[in-house]
Protein 1
Amino acid sequence: METILTIFIIFIAGATGTYFLGKLSGILRSVIFITTLLVTSWLFFTAVSPDVIIEFEIMGILMSWGLTPLAYVFAIIVFGLAIIIGIYAIKAMEGQRSLNFFFANFLLSVMAMFGILISNDLISFFIFWEIMSWSSYFMVVLNHKDVQRSGITYIIFCVIGAYAMMMAIMIIYSYSGSVMIGDFISNFHAFSLGMKWLLPILLLIGFASKAALMPLHVWAPGAYSNSPMSYTALFSGALSKMGVYGMVIVMIMIVQQIPDGYWIKEVIAWLGGITSAIGTLWAIKQDDAKRMLAYSSVAQLGYIIVGVAIGTPLAMMSGLFLAVMHGIFKSTLFMVVGAIERQTGTSNFTEVTGLIRKMPWTFLAALMSIIALAGIPPLGGFIGKWMLYESLMGSNHYLLIIVIFFSSTAAFLYCYKFLFGFFLGQEEKEWSHVKEAPAMMVVPMIIMAILTFVLGVFPGLILKPINDGMQFLGYVSTDNRFWEMSTIFNDWGNQVVMEPIVYTIFAIFLFFLIFLTLKGYKNTRYVTTKDISSSGEIPREDENLTFITGFMQPFFRAVAPVMKRQIDKYYTSFGKGLEALFDFTRRIYTGNGQTYALYFVIFVILLLMFRDSLF
Amino acid sequence: MINDKNSQKIADFIKNWARKHSIWVLAYGTGCGAIEIPPTMTSRYDAERLGVRGAATPRQADVLLITGYLTTKTLKRVIRVYEQMQDPKYVIGFGSCTINGGMYYDSYNTIKVLDKYLPVDVYINGCMPRPEAVLAGFGKLQQLIAEGKANGAQKYKDDHEYYRGNLRKIIGNKYEMPLYNW
Amino acid sequence: MESVGYYILGVIVTIIVAFMVGMTYMGLSRKITARVQNRKGPPFYQNFIDAFKLASKETAIHHGFMHHAGPAFLMVASIMSVLIIPVLNDGKWFPNLNFDGDLIFLLYIMVFGPLGMALGAGQTGNPNSAIGVTRGLSQMVGFEIPWVMALVALMMQYQTTSLVDLMAVQQTTGWLMFSSPFAFLAAVLAMLGMFRYSPFDIVGAPTELASGPVSENGGKYLFTMMSSGSIFAFAKLTLYVDLFMGGADNLIELLIKTFTIYLIPMLYGMVSPRYRTEQAIRYFWGWPLFFGFLALVHAMVF
């Protein structure tokens, strides 16, 4: 049997087993869950090759499954994250309710994502897309918290996206009679001009709603912050990348073929830029770590979409690289929040402070991920950011690059707020009992943190599969032209060589660290955070001196005009308008027989009056 | 070589020379004397030419300047600030009030003799001392530093119990000072 | 092996030169400020004495690892910038890394230090430190925009992101200061914020924040930060000279040019009071942003 089918069967068996056998014992559930992930990942990384294509017929429609090199890149994200987050989730979810459902659903999500990636026909693509949407919806409402608002918002946007996509698929099928993605792409030139514009836009609405592109990003903060953190890590890290995957195909394979399709690319790129700016500004404002990271995810996906939409080789490379990096660091950050929430019971910056000495390993993971997120060398995020800037310059986007620069500079503000709010600041008596998270949660985070570093020094490791994927999309090989194992080039031949830079940075850092440590070693002492120069006043043990409420107030005074407008307000007023309309419509049906008789009489009179003109 | 007596002497000389010419002052504006600090620092008398310069926090400061009378309420905070400063550190008592209480000699809520609570290196007499006198005081301190005689901090460490005992007499046992550990 | 030794030696020499020059400039700035205020002022070598005194302070306190390592982060940023910015034309005298990184890399490594430092300041638990850090980051968002606009205009006009190439361009076209005046204006106005003299000294603000992020640092920590600051000042000044004034052929020329540039924020600061944070941000999003736009238009047209 083909490996792909084997993987599917294992997934389904694993999900069923987790759900039903999990009712017997928790250990059995964990074992089945982790074995399923391990075996499928192992099969995927060893036995799946991008060339094999399986075809079969269901109800007269030909289906075709196979892994393209492009999908392989995304599949690496999915399986890599799934296995690491899976290990984390077992410990993190301990003691919470509906665990059987959670773990089975987790497996279903991973399976659906894998299904999306291997689908070569639109029907199975759509089916897996729906499985993914529904399984993630159940995760959003799993905690029975804020179901009305975030759950409904999420499912509405899922449905909007799915309807748009289904409409596109129906049109494609009725016009060309084939649901194969390959056929669609090769026959695209035969469509009429109107269809040529309509189809990509419908498909893009479907994908953009999952990738949380503005103005379809409204669901993201609620959905990301409401699902359990162990799932949000996968949600933001891998699931949102499915939207990116779809967009890559649409932007490169289809939009390329439209005359003047250039404009779609520009509009999407600008939407991506604006998404990143707005998302960043809102992220800074949040006091809850989950919501902050959710907005931050929206912003980071904005970068990725900019890269994908610009579509020059360097830009596409940066988009895909950022997608991988974002999967790594953002899921680590969500895991960190999960760990902190588990240990302290809250994820609010204004409540918990000074954890650095209690949770040093968690801090290390958070620090590395934040550095990668901020794009500071030498970690991996920098490589992606660098390529994005260079590609924007190389493709003459004068103003877009300024928008991107603005949002990535403003990102430092929330990056600092994240680290400061949780780990730094005054150490409070209230949190003196907090312990480091269990090893099973810390180790996955640390592994991810190390990954960000490795990919920063040797970006070639992940650029190689990306390069293969791009060749599948029709790009010329970028190997040795834009990247080597540890070097990246831009369009004009300028380069950054990471290896010597990293060594120099470490040498300097170590030298001064040793200098600071050894100089006057005996007379250097540690004092608590209560022993600060506070004008001679001695803070009491229970006195909280941490400055975190209204953290970036001066900044917001400067950007106040931008923050006044909110897209959800427009949606709300639109919804209110619809409600009023429906309410008006409802009044027609009064339930009174005489009114209905009146309607009938009026109708007949009207009919008689306009008889001549109507018939 | 490093433990050699002469080279130690030379190192001390250089260190003291640097300390002498770079005095960062934490002016603890307790009393009316604080008003004499701005003229000392600004254009007319320009203490900066001697290397005297204001410091913002006790961690950065070398000299604690007690400008005038100290109420019993301020005392514990001044002592806290002094303990937060980092070695080597010096204290200058500014005005008559720090020497013998000055015009507050019979006040119930000021301390009379500063030296009981903090090891004063240099007193500047006067009520108020004019900026010239302040500069002369700094000159005296510089001289003491150069000679290696400004060792009030060492005295504070050695006689810590004595100083703390005096403090406790003033503020009583209700208010616990955190331990000062070196 | 010999080349590695030579390289390390060159790095050390570069750092020492940068340290000396930066320290002297800061001392001179104190002297000049004093003269403007009709004072005698400290000698120009006062900063060396201060630094030496700080280094010779005996005790030092720290509030944990990040606070302890904060100055080292700062040093990484300063030294890396000095290594990436070519000191003299044609890579003379100072062998460094300038072919391994470009301007975008430089922009990012320059914020590495302040962020590391900010973490250190955060761990002290002193509210003043955190307030200072937030002010600094907000101000950075302010001045980074016109500064990046100026750089992007230059890079796109000459189709290169390498500083060395931009310096080579100036050998033929003359100083970029004259051929791209708007970029120069935007960059210089952004520099006012970068040097944090008045009216943009909102981070340190001794009278309201007790020197902000450094308020818990003394002794060896403050010494390391002070030396890092002077190295960083030299790096930034050299960057401006390299970008807009055609680089320098020898050390004397470099000193003259850098000092001329240095006078701008210094003299501007002497006659200005302090802004509030949002005023500072709005300042940068006013005229500097406008000049940045003009620079972009200029780059687009030519």
Note: Residues 115 and 244 of chain A are 15 Å apart (CA to CA).
Protein 2
Amino acid sequence: MSETPLLRLDGIAKAFAGTPVLVDLDLSVRAGERRGLIGPNGAGKTTLINVITGAHQPDAGDILFRGKSIRRLPPHRRNRLGISRSFQILSLFGEMTVGENIRNAILRYRGLHVSPRRLLRRLDTIFTEVAAVAEMVGLGRALQERADNLPYGMQRRLDIALVLAQQPELIILDEPAAGLSAAETRDLIAVLQATIGKRTLILVEHDMDVVYALSDRITVLDYGLVLTEGTPAEINANPDVRRVYLGEEAA
Amino acid sequence: MTAYPDALAEARSPRRAQVLNLHATVEALVTVALLAVLVAAPALFSRATINDLGQAVCLGLFAISFNILFKYSGLLSFGHAAFFGFAAYTQALLLQSFAGLPVPLLILATGLSASVLGYLIGQICVRRSGAYFSMTTLAIAALFYAVAFKWHAATGGTDGLDSFMPSSLMLLPRWHLDSPGISETYLLVLAILIPVAVAAWALLELTPFGSAVVAVKHNEKRAAFLGYDTHRVKLANFTLAAGLAGVAGALWAIDNSFVSTDSIDLSFSTTVVIIAFLGGSVWFWGPLIGAVVYIAASDWLSALTPHWQIWLGLAFILVVLFAPGGITGLVKSLWRLALRPQAAANV
């Protein structure tokens, strides 16, 4: 068993306009692990994702992916190393079709070659791959629909499809169930359970059903600090967590 | 895996797929017809018309190169004449010094030098988008105009450059070299222009490079998080557009046998915007049609009135207001309208 974690954050600090959002934060995620990240609004969950994926530069601390620092890399370089993320506020290619959206994700992960002969052969395989990814998330019948025209729940799935299409080593989902109905959330859980496989997952989510169903470890953030970490059962039983987070929900 | 083709066949609404295929086929046929008419023109039209048409196709390629930035990257350049003019002067100077070298080689060299220039200038310009991009290109074009205007020794200043003539034609039909006929020059221009434009079309419409450019235009943030180096993608397209403008400028110099500051001044940078919008920026070949219409209209109007530019300006305003897709956009919507009753009948 390898000792180096897939992702390690060392003393990450980030402040916006003088207000600290992340404070000396350490986090370690093993390969193959499914990690839930929970915490009240403003706990720093999305900021943490932005720091991991390169949207924000941390003020202090280091980010190690497979033991190497990725702190200075721009988002596209981190993606090419195998980190792909979804967005809390949907970010799709709205004016393009579902198929074109997925193709954008696959083409980059396959690399951009312009050689016409390879292209002709590959367009064919990519077409099959696009269809396979769409089928995987239940968008098989919507390949030619404009992404903008999809119902919200389907747009959420497309957002996740773009991540899965790249077969990343580390999948980061930022509130994938936000705005979904109970039935849509159940479908989403089933889709994710079927598709994530042995890949590593970091999941930020408010819906605890989703978190419990998909995580094998949970980290609780509060005011930019790690409050505690444990298995779903441990977290569920932790009185501090109930007070800070779960209790709030019950109230 | 075998299930997917079946799922696909079901998934693709057959009616919609049919209509999409029909549109693609019609577009391809119209393109071929358009290019065929251009090639056959010397047999069909008068010498004067061919003379005008030669100018129009050079302007058309220039407008296509402008539109490559606008349509595929969403970048509105107000300084595209910098590359066109730079190439026109370069071509004239090359022909004055190396008249014996094959013309296609010289045009290629000019196009490449314009690409290199585009690569360097693009490093600055594509860091910004929207109005900031437009203003940066405008400022750079103003700089180029000032150089062309002031550097009399190289550019001839306001007198411009003349007395250059190609004398070696490698692979192209020979003509009487002391006085190439209008239609021979025209065909030489087309022999270079069509393959170059078709190659650019194929690159943008058929390759992963083209889909990367479009992806970055539609959602730069998401593209970056999917692994696209968005700066390099935009820079690559800027370089392509500059190179194409360079080929257009080189052909323009040969077609006119004269280069002046007219081909690099700021009003020429706006003329190309007008031409592209007139023809329609939604279709790759729209600007080419725009150029033909522009030249024909300015010829016709200038024969009627000395104030022809007022009328041309008015026509442009009307197009922008009532047919924002330009001439090709207008034809496209009419064609869709004509198709609709038929589609309804099929259901």
Note: Chain B is about 80% helix and 0% strand.
